[in-house]
Amino acid sequence: MDSLTQIALGASVGYAVLGSKVGRKAIVWGAILGTLPDLDVFLPYAGEVEAFTYHRGFSHSLFVHLLASPFITWFILKLHSSDQQYTKQWFWLVFLCLSTHAILDSLTVYGTQLMWPFTEYPVAVSNIFIIDPAYTLPLLLGLGFALYPNVKATTARRMNLLGIALSSAYICWSLIAKVAIDQKVETALISRGIQINAYVSTPAPLTTMLWRVVVMSDGDYYEGYASVFDNSKDVTLNAYQTYPDLLTAIQNEWGVARLQWFTRGFYSVRQNKNNVVLSDLRMGVECSYAFNFVVGEQTSKGVKVGDFEKVTKRPDLSQVGRIWDRIWDPSVSLASPLAANEC
Fold first, then answer.
1. Number of H helices, E strands in the chain
2. Is residue 77 within a helix (H) or strand (E), and if so which, with residue range?
């Protein structure tokens, strides 16, 4: 999730755990701890693939959080020696702020290694977009009461808890919506005779009223959209080609295998001039995927391994308003106007 949301969640959890004892101090430490796991982005990784696939690794592990919490608690109490009587509560504040960060991240499509080092399996429930105001605003409103100077402490605590409750209820709604969307899309795929090798659904930007789906099929993949108001006939699906044979000569390279694993098979392979580019289909939209890597280079002697440079294609933000239109009107197209080989 975005940094503002993680800061708001950490601050809200911190105040809920210890605000009645230490006041706004709990908000400050909650905010710091709520963003701490994401500092792994500043680590000097060996390359772009490592940075992509090791992010949300050890720093998001619940086991690491459990082991690190006593040391962080000790450090906090060194700074606030008058709070020694609340040692247990400070421990729970630290652990819960760290762990809720990781758990919230695991609800996005990226992948979070919650059980590292026992497994690197990237948990990705994909029921919430990385930025969703409907989740973040209740937390910020609750914190607003806690930070406002003239609000009674009991009122501040109740409003903060209400904010957490509302944001949690929104998460529950998103899970229900995801199940409903998946059922509609499955019906649409069967009725249209589309072979399903792998399937993923994730909310469209800023909403859980519209969902983007990716279907890996035999030799092709489909990108589509489904609104919570659609029936199965309204689901839009557009087919695109991928060329996995371009990886044959380099399929044993660590970077290629790592990307295939991390994307869970949701990737496309295309040739762009002399470059062989592997794109993660889960994040972004057709022609504007967030994570693309030059895994190979086409030469006169065939494909040789590339430099794994990351190539980011920014989406056209002027089209964001069409997402709102598509929620209500299935005739609105969100497909790229370019053919796949023109992207």
1. 9, 11
2. helix 62-79
Per-residue model confidence (pLDDT) at position 338:
62
Q: Encode pLDDT of 223-265 as tens digits.
A: 999 999 999 999 999 999 999 999 999 999 999 999 999 999 9
DSSP string, 223-273: EEEEETT--GGG-EEEEEE--GGGGGGGTTSHHHHHHHHHTTT-EEEEEET
Chain-centre distance for alpha carbon 309 = 22
- 38-67 pLDDT, tens digit each: 999 999 999 999 999 999 999 999 999 999
Residue 339 reports pLDDT greater than 70 = no
Query: CA-to-CA distance for 178 and 160, rounded, in angstroms?
Result: 27
Report the candidate in 11, 62, 65 with the shortest Cα–Cα distance to residue 34: 11
Indicate the burial class of 147 (C-beta count within 10 angstroms; 0-12, 13-18, 19 or more): middle
Q: Rounded to the nearest 5°, which phi and psi values hold at 227?
A: -95, 155
> 83 with 77: CB under 8 angstroms?
yes
CB count within 10 Å of CB 3 equals 10
> Are residues 291 and 312 in contact, defined by beta-carbon separation less than 8 angstroms?
yes
Instruction: Confirm if 232 and 156 have CB atoms less than 8 A apart.
Output: no
Cβ atoms of 223 and 210 within 8 Å: the answer is no
